[in-house]
Structures are given as structure tokens and as C-alpha cells.
Amino acid sequence: MSKPKTLFEKIWDSHIVAQEPDSPAILYIDLHLIHEVTSPQAFEGLRQRGLKVRRPDRSIATMDHSIPTQSLSLEGLDELGAKQLQKLRQNCAEFGIKLYDLNDPQRGIVHVIGPELGYTQPGMTIVCGDSHTATHGAFGALAFGVGTSEVELVLASQCLIQYRPKTCQVVFDGKLPKRVTAKDMILALIAQVGVGGGTGYVFEYCGDAVRELNMEERMTLCNMSIEAGARAGMVAPDDTTFAYLADKPFAPKGHEWDRMLEYWRSLPSDEGAHYDKKIVVDVSQLEPMVTYGTNPGMGIPISQPIPDPALERDPDRRTAMEKALNYMGFQPNRPLLGQAVDVVFIGSCTNSRMTDLRQAASLIKGRKIANGVRLIVVPGSESVRRQAEAEGLDKVFKEAGGEWRFSGCSMCIAMNGDQLKPGQVAVSTSNRNFEGRQGDGGRTILASPLTAAASAITGQVTDPRSI
Fold it and tell me: Under CATH, what is the fold of the domain 291-466?
């Protein structure tokens, strides 16, 4: 009888092309996702070496990072962004890669359109020159970000050289309380293990609370695995996964669907499979989470006070906390509840899907955002935008006083004027709160779409359960 395997082991082992003893593996890559920021140098490297793209049918490209979201006009776009977009268009045409161009009705953030078009499927290896590629692990895929030199390697060979990571089972037990979401689950995990707690591991998310999540919520969970230092995050495929994929344009059809479904059902970890590490989180007592500092691990339940660095025993952590609180202008032992907010951003590859927009709109509908607060809502794809508009969600946000945009990365990376001014405080549904991430001198509090919406209404950090 063969040894029981984890979901990760099944995918990894079936994608090894070659491996020498005590050496990294040459791993075959099923799907390569490309955008305008990390690909220009990779394509130039191919030209210099006289190489072609080995499997152009295994790559798709989209414009998402550098694009404007207030309109689809490139007028006023910064020079570097315009060059990146033009280069991507030229490179995809020359090397025969499918591109979702600026005006394509299916264009959007790379980690949103991959799943919604059905490119992302269970059992795949998926890479992209973007750190939040772990999003696709929600489908039972092994998905991770790579650097530009590795983008070139995949283009040229459809393979990567990779050391085998260890496995960590993350069990979310219990039932989520009302208005506590997948974003709160992942922020709570990162607060518990720290930004380096997953280094060297692939997380597999398990437990009743994970099974209850829809696919969009599972994507949020996997998206921020990198923020805990993990190589990837995965959820075993189940009937929820298959139902989501069934009508997607590039999902298998007919007999091929039946054949793939049989394979997909074999992927979940075997009973008795060994994990190198296990973490258990009880979600039944979980509250909405907010960050107080300058990395995603500096998170607290919304009702709790900001931690006191003086009580931290680890000197490096104490110094980091002191520096973060100084940058944020926050005081220890005081609540974040009631902290005045200047900007609320609802968007990014973490929280820009229909589930997220519906949650935010459910609180904002019939209300006005607070005086002096700027609310920016950016859907994750043009398909999401059209669906939201068909449901009237755009009107909900606009009638409340918010801004409704075309799809793109926008304020997550402070692009094209969508950025904080020095000293401004934002509640953001994005994934990173580093110094200057959303604008030079800007101060970011990470939260769920519900917490963001509640804070937009009141003009201060607000528990969504109180609305």
C-alpha cells in the first residue's frame, strides 16, 4: 500500500521533470500568468538569447498594475506605466501570448481573472511574477510568486528549479460569527504566527470554517499566505470548487470535464498523511481584525487595545513595534476603535470580488459616508464591474458619496494618483500596510470589506457588528 500523501505532495510529485539527489527539482509549470510590471525584462532576456516562448498556450497576460482606474484613457498616465503597458502589448504580439488588453471586456487583476475565466484549476502548478499568486491555491493548485529571472525561465522552458518546501496544516475550527469574514481569519492567523511564521512551508487550510467559505472567500484566505512568509496556501478541492468552475469559459467541457473531475476528486490529502507542522485556530470567538502597525502581522481584534511594546520580550519585535507605532502616530494601550479615517479603499486582489462588494454595499446602502472621508471602490475585473453594476452596487457606493472605478490594482500599490497624502489614515481591504505602500507617508489599517464600509460611514475605525 502506498504512503498517504498530502494535497501538496500529490501535486509536487506529479510535476517533477527531473531531480538529482540532494538537489532542487525541475518542476513543470501548468499555467504562467503575466502582467506588465515583472515581464518586460524577461521578454528582453529571451530576445538577447534568441529564444522563443516554449508553450505560449500555457501563458496568459493582463494589464492590471499600472493602468488608470478612473477612466480607460492613458492620457495623464505616468511615463513608466505607459511604457510598461506598451511593452506588454508588443511582447505578447511578438511571442504569441493571449493578452487581456486595456479595453478587453474580460480584463482585470491577474488573480481575479485567472479563476473567473476558468484558467485556474485543481492540481495545477501556477506561477506569476507577483507575490500574491497564492490566491489560486484556493482551487487546490500549487501557486506561488516568482521573480523576473524566473519569469524568463518559465517562458523559455515551461519549468522552474525549486527546492521542496515543508508542509503546514492550518485548521480553522468552529463557526464564523456574524460579520466576521475570511479576511479576518487570515489576519488573525498572521497575527498569531507572525510575518515569518510560515517561512519554508506551504499552508494547507482545513477545517469546518474553511469548508463553509465560498470560492471567493477561499481566495482571500489563500491570497495573504505570503504575508505570513509561506511559499503558498492551498485548500483541497471539493463540490464548492467544482460548482464554481463548471460554467467558466476555459474550464474543461463534456467528457474532458468528467475525466478531470475524477482526477480532481483524488487530490485531497489522504487520511494519515504527514504534515511537518500543524496550527489550529478557533474561529468561534474571532472578532473583526484590524492592523495597527506596518506589517500584516501587527493585527488585533477590533475591540482590543493596541499592544504595548514595553511588554514585548523579544528585543527585535519590540523595536519593530516602537518604530511602527511612531510611523502610524498611534499610542499603545489605546483602542483603534474611534481612530479618525481619511480614506477607505475597497479593492485589490484580496477583496475586490462580488462577495466583497456585496458585503460592503450591504452596510452602505441607504447611508452616506462621513464628511471628509474619501471612499474608493475598485472592482477586481471588468466582469465583476459589469455584474456589480447590473446589481446596482455602483449606485449604492456613488449615492453614498463614494467613487466607483474601472478594474485594476489602484490604491493597493498607490498607482496613478490613487494614493494617500502624507499623514492620511486609510482603512484598506488590500494585503499590505508597509510604510509608504499606499502613498508616501500614508498610514494603512488593513481590514475586511465590512469593517472598511462601517468605517467609511462613521469616519472612524468602526466595528461592523455595531452598524
Answer: Aconitase; domain 3 (3.30.499)
